[in-house]
Design goal:
Number of domains: 2
Structural class: mainly beta
Distance between the termini: 101 Å
Radius of gyration: 28 Å
Largest sheet: 17 strands, parallel
CATH class of the largest domain: Mainly Beta
Oligomer: single chain
Helix content: under 10%
Length: 464
């Protein structure tokens, strides 16, 4: 009798389990996995035929899963083609995936190499719909010739001409005894895991009409506007004599980071006519180092400029401004200065000197009332001065010296947070016009004459 009950119980359990595996999971909480969230076709630019890769769509659930559709978003106009279950198509519907089973989607791409107008990166995506959810697999191919570098160390003096774009797929490092010179007009695109690490010297030779761009390799909307899309540029302890002229650094996690004093008589980092924009964390981060900047725009960063643990800094005719938007909330001051560093072993301090002349230091549409914060610990030298600057502060830092300061709206030409459009030129009637002191800087960030009136303007742009 006991054996019969056990047999019946086992049959019922087996029947229930079998029914469960044969039924579909319909909950929106159902899981789905991909073997890769992005397919890269990084040799298409030299190919005359098609290159094929695959991605697996995996059902990790213990029940069957119905995929409502797997769709190539670019449709028939896409350079990508997909094949599902032996069928070449742009969309497949009502695909059953067994429990803990998977399916292959083969993806090919054919780019016409004679199409010189084609952007060198082309992108599309696969959309997977199931149980009211939508997931995407990104497709990315390089459509024109480019210089591709992955986990490369530059060990000798090297010059990059403006012949092709540069795509950095892994870290790029400049050795301590080497230098990299980037000529005007170059465009350098970084993958999400690809920092530029400078142990030696970086020399960027941009021009007002041919700037050098450092950008993420994601050029498709909306990813082309995401901050934090690549790590940033890091100037390490042994680095020296770095000079960036007319460089544009955008969408990084950190813009430029410099640490330790220069090993030469020159500043560790000189920034001339540079734009550092839409950086997730710090646009400029200096730690016990030397940075000189003029005619620079540092805008819409999580923390625009952070100078800590001492060092020597000079900023002239720079615009440092942030506004809250959909990507970055303005909750930190745009300028933070300190002479100390807190570590697990205690607090370290070092002498600091910092000078700001003819600078706009402003933030709005956020929660910050004092856009300049200066923190001092210890008895070392703490010398921070501002002259002929326009700043937003309610409580003036007690440990800074200042003269001829303005505390009113700079009246930027066009600030539209809804559409994320920012034009930091000055409107007519701006209090920053003719409010600066004379400097030896002949041109502004646009390459226009610096003095157009009785005196120079405050900020990186001169009202023409």
């Amino acid at each position: 009798m006991h054996k019969l009950i056990l047999l019946i119980s086992s049959f019922v359990i087996f029947f229930i389990f079998s029914c469960k595996k044969d039924s579909f999971i319909t909950s929106s909480d159902a899981s789905i996995n991909f073997s890769s969230d992005t397919l890269y076709f990084d040799t298409v630019f030299v190919s005359s035929g098609s290159i094929t890769q695959f991605v697996k769509i995996i059902n990790p659930n213990n029940q069957k899963l119905l995929l409502k559709s797997v769709k190539l978003m670019g449709g028939n106009n896409s350079v990508f083609k997909i094949n599902i279950d032996g069928n070449s198509t742009t969309e497949a519907d009502n695909i059953e995936l067994g429990p803990n089973d998977s399916m292959y989607v083969f993806v090919s791409v054919l780019i016409n190499s004679s199409n010189t107008s084609l952007t060198f990166i082309v992108q599309d995506s696969l959309q997977v719909l199931f149980n009211g959810n939508q997931r995407y697999i990104q497709l990315q191919a390089y459509g024109q010739k480019a210089h591709f570098l992955s986990n490369v160390t530059i060990a000798t003096p090297t010059t990059w001409p403006n012949d092709l774009p540069y795509v950095i797929l892994g870290s790029l490092q400049i050795d301590s005894n080497a230098s990299l010179t980037i000529q005007k007009g170059c465009k350098v695109y970084f993958h999400a895991s690809a920092p530029l690490i400078v142990e030696g010297t970086l020399n960027v030779q941009g021009a007002d009409s041919a700037r050098v761009y450092f950008l993420s390799d994601r050029l498709d909307y909306p990813y082309n506007s995401f901050p934090g899309s690549w790590p940033g540029i890091y100037f390490m302890q042994s680095s020296k004599d770095n000079q960036l002229t007319f460089a544009v650094i955008k969408n990084a996690f950190q813009g430029v980071v410099a640490q330790n004093l220069s090993t030469s008589s020159n500043p560790k980092l000189t920034l001339n006519d540079c734009i550092i924009d839409n950086i997730y964390d710090a646009g400029i981060l200096g730690a016990q180092t030397n940075i000189t900047a003029q005619n620079c725009l540092v805008s819409n960063c999580g923390r625009n400029i952070v100078l800590g643990y001492g060092g020597g800094y000079s900023f002239t005719n720079c615009t440092i401004a942030s506004f809250s938007n959909d990507y970055i909330s303005h909750i930190s001051p745009v300028l933070t200065i300190s002479n100390y560093l807190v570590t697990s072993g205690g607090t370290l301090s070092a002498d600091i000197t910092a000078s700001f002349v003819n600078c706009i230091i402003w933030g709005d549409n956020g929660t910050v009332h004092d856009e300049v914060v200066a923190s001092e610990l210890g008895s070392g030298l703490f010398k921070v001065s501002l002259a002929n600057c326009l700043w937003k502060v309610q409580d003036i830092p007690a440990n800074v010296s200042y003269s001829s300061m303005l505390t009113m709206d700079p009246m930027f030409d066009n600030i539209n947070n809804q559409f994320m459009y920012y034009d930091f030129h000055l409107k007519a009637g701006s209090p920053a016009i003719d409010a600066g002191q004379f400097t030896a800087i002949p041109f502004d960030l646009d390459g226009n004459p610096r003095v157009v009136g009785n005196a120079t303007d405050i900020g990186c742009f001169e009202k023409q």
